[in-house]
Design brief:
Strand order of the largest sheet: 3-2-4-5-7-6-12
CATH architecture of the largest domain: 3-Layer(aba) Sandwich
Number of strands: 15
Distance between the termini: 39 Å
CATH superfamily of the largest domain: Thiamin diphosphate (ThDP)-binding fold, Pyr/PP domains
CATH topology of the largest domain: Rossmann fold
Helix content: 25-40%
CATH class of the largest domain: Alpha Beta
Radius of gyration: 20 Å
Strand content: 15-25%
Structural class: alpha/beta
Shape: globular
Length: 346
């Protein structure tokens, strides 16, 4: 099978969807630039015309609202936000309109829209340009949220999102655009809500999102050299997320570390930890660990960035904490209530 990088796989998905379905169009900022967003939409305007690849003014609210209106009218729009931070300006049409529409009209109307947003981490970009807000949107009923990791998933999840009859938030991490992998030429779907087991293991489960999967795989390789076999799960979908895949793994390993490069409080990692603590409590041999960003804005200083962002070492430290507990009898619990303590590694 041929290899493509993440950005090229995503560009191919756009092109094939535009070609196969006349209802599909793209609207957003920078779409006519050959290099914007890692060249993930390069020359689509030349191939399909600027009436279907629309470079919009800088108004996130108006662009998103117009696309939602088109979706309600029977089109299948793709809205592109080059920075997830400024998608906050479109919260009203996304949260109040798109996500509620089917419910408000008793399932008689759908909003088949894909809202694509990019997380831009590191690079000394500062607090207003580096935010990972997936947990905020996953909190909203009626809105699906996906975060692909590989080139294969970048294409397959995007196709599934465009074919879905519900609003889907598709989140890229810019650091993944150059990652390569096997990608089929044909149009295919990766099911929304289905996780992938990247590496099997029996001692600890590592659940990760997006760019954190690579760090977990690196940590698993280091652990293997120490005689510890880690199972690595790429969540792929944040809402809905694959509970059964995670629960099955934790019931086997007895230990869980969740890695999500977003703020810790009320985050994706907290949701997974709460679910596992409720539904697989009897299988836990150690407290659940979370590896997330500290609850402070992203720094601009390069030196501070090194302390702020997640590293393989932080993941290994969290795993070491779980391994300090020999088994069920050695598990620490909160005073008096018999529940597991949820530790953190920020």
């Amino acid at each position: 099978m041929r290899e493509l990088n993440y950005a090229a796989a995503l560009c191919e998905a756009h092109a094939q969807l535009l070609e196969s379905d006349p209802r599909v169009f793209i609207i957003g900022q920078g779409l006519w630039s050959p290099w914007y967003a890692g060249a993930s939409m390069k020359d689509l305007d030349k191939q399909f015309g600027r009436d279907r690849v629309i470079d919009s003014p800088v108004s996130e609210n108006a662009t998103t609202a117009a696309a939602i209106g088109a979706a309600i009218s029977g089109m299948r729009p793709i809205v592109f936000h080059p920075r997830m931070d400024f998608m906050l300006l479109a919260v009203d049409p996304i949260v109040n309109q798109a996500s509620n529409w089917s419910y408000v009209f008793a399932g008689q109307g759908n909003v088949p829209i894909v809202i694509r947003a990019v997380i831009n981490r590191r690079g000394e970009q500062g607090a207003q340009h580096s935010q990972a807000l997936q947990a905020m949107y996953a909190h909203i009923p009626g809105l699906k949220v996906v975060m692909p990791t590989s080139a294969y998933d970048a294409k397959g999840l995007f196709v599934a999102a465009v074919h879905d009859s519900n609003p889907v938030l598709y989140i890229d991490d810019r650091s993944l655009y150059s990652e390569t992998g096997d990608v089929p030429e044909e149009l295919y779907e990766v099911p929304i809500g289905q996780a992938a087991v990247c590496r099997e293991g029996s001692d600890v489960t590592l659940v990760a999102t997006s760019c954190m999967v690579a760090l977990c795989n690196q940590a698993a390789q280091t652990l293997a050299q120490r005689g510890v076999e880690a199972e690595v799960i790429d969540l792929r979908s944040i809402k809905p997320w694959d509970r059964e895949c995670v629960l099955e793994s934790v019931r086997k390993t007895g230990r869980l570390v969740v890695v999500d490069e977003a703020w810790e409080t009320c985050g994706v990692a907290a949701e997974i930890a709460a679910t596992v603590g409720r539904e697989a409590f009897g299988s836990l041999r150690a407290p659940i660990e979370r590896v997330c960003l500290p609850d402070v804005p992203a720094p601009t200083s390069f030196v501070l960035e090194q302390a702020y962002y997640t590293t393989t070492e932080k993941i290994l430290e969290a795993v070491d904490l779980t391994l300090q507990h020999p088994g069920r009898s050695g598990m620490s619990a909160s005073a008096g209530n018999g529940r597991t303590e949820l530790r953190k590694s920020a």
